[in-house]
Amino acid sequence: MNFRLIVIMSLMALPSSSFFLSGYLTRLIERDEQTVKQLDYALTLHNSAAYRYLVLNHREGSESWLFAQKELAKVDAKAALSLANWYNKQSQLLESLAPEKHSKNLQKMVFWLQQAVRLNDDEAKISLVEHYLKSESFDKAKVVLSQMPQETLFTVLLKIRLSVALGEQENTLALIKKNVRLLEQHIQGQTLLNKLKKFQVITHSAEIPEQLIAQNCTISLQLFATQLTHLDLLEQLVSDFMAKKISQSVCFTQIRYLSKQALECESKKNSAISCNEKLFNQIAATVNTRYIGVMLPEGGANVHFGILYFDKFDTPDVLSHEISHFFGFIDEYPLKENHEACLNIQQKPFARNVAVLSPTYQGERERVRAEVLKQLVWAKHIDPKTPILQAMPGAKKHWRLGTPKKYINKVGLFPARSCEQSKGQATGALQAYKPLAQRTHLEYYEHSLPPLYLSLLFQKPKHYLMPSFHWNIALAEYLSGNEEQANYWLSQSLKWQHKSDSKQVH
Prior knowledge:
Helix content: 40-55%
Number of domains: 4
């Protein structure tokens, strides 16, 4: 007996006047008096009560739950919103574990939010605008905002956030002035106003706080976030970074907001962030620190002269690693093939933790040793009994540079991976060396910065510092052919040269 016949026979008991009435089945289901066959038949009639029954009696996210919600969502905004929320949860769970699945779930979330918006659900409109702001789809955010009641708190909040994201300062001020009473009457409005003030979103000052002046700063750093929602995240990141010993030499000014619309940046997940650094001249007058840092939504962290780039996913370990470059520490993992540090043998020390030298020397051992030590920032930390030269077999007074493995726990001269990809190292013309055999924070973020490296920093804090961020602007202007502007910004950078930031602040 086939399924259709079973269903028909099971319905013979229904009153003839109700045989074709979905309403009769609805009443049965709502009283939970239906049989399995009646429920199945109700589903073939696309009965909404049957779909709701599946939703209530199946696990969220199960095949039956999803099927029923999708059917309901054709006409029910709340069902569409439930689907959107479920796919959003899945995307968050998969963000770091499975990027492709994360992206697909995010797309499904947007699809169902859009469906709920078509069904005129206000909660869905808010969520969709939130998503568009986060993903920087500002034109789409404007369209949805235009469909929302114009004088409600959430509409005003979203309008202000959109205006801030677009860098429309005058419009932002006008929106606040127009709606200040409404904003001040609600916690959400007060919170936004306080955030705009705290992070100097609308107004900014180059004045240095008294607590910064009182500190003995080796370097000072102004950090910016390019999304309002990232400001608290960045504040927590800095707070966590302060637990690291290297933080003793870093002074932060108040974190600030910087509209991404004011920048021209390339920021993709698997490549280093880069920006048109000429545009930083627009904020330079409001910054009184040696360095600046910018948090973007995504992209590879790196330091380019006086500017630090990183993204919202970066950890305190990553921040510490990148900030160490400002102090003159160089990466101990392979640098790019044509990196300036690996083009030639150094003529004088240029970094605290790496020296690029000839791998072989000839001459009297003591003379060669003394010559090599002059090139090492960590020379005074090498015990006189620790060798840094090894005799080459069959060659009188020919030496291979490096400390033997038996001294692996000593300070010495050990191969670093910094120049592995360079032509110079490939041909045997040069080799990068580091003071410790162990892996360090400069090779792997997760490893700590060795006490020796901290000593090298604290003993000569003003040495080997990166130029200030003004140098970046000068270089960008020079490469654009604007020599007059390049010279101006170079002069601004030189004001910071060879001076501690604490003195510069005074």
